[in-house]
Amino acid sequence: MGAPDAQPADRSAECSEDGDRDERIDPDRPSLTRSDERLLSYLADVGADYQAFVAGNTGLYDDHVESRLTALAEAGLVERVSGEAVYRITDAGRAALRDDCPRWSD
């Protein structure tokens, strides 16, 4: 059984102010999974943490957290702040969390 958030969000339509779908696509905006949103929210709350603690405190498997943090780092949404796998959220990651539209399709 696959993870419920394994697929990236449907980014083909954006929400407008009145809640209707708008057909504009922003190619610079990253697609986030529910796990990504959980990881970004956690790091926004705590500042920086070890990858293993991020996994334990978010309820996600360590291997999954490692792969998602790597992808988020490549997208510029988190950054590694030490050689010991300590990560923190970036300004771009905070901006992604402030978005009013859900990033995943439920």
Automatic annotation (TrEMBL):
Residues 21-32 have a biased composition (Basic and acidic residues). InterPro entries: DUF2250, WH-like_DNA-bd_sf, WH_DNA-bd_sf. Transmembrane segments: none annotated. SUPFAM superfamilies: Winged helix' DNA-binding domain. Residues 1-32 are annotated as: Disordered. Signal peptide: none annotated. This is DUF2250 domain-containing protein.
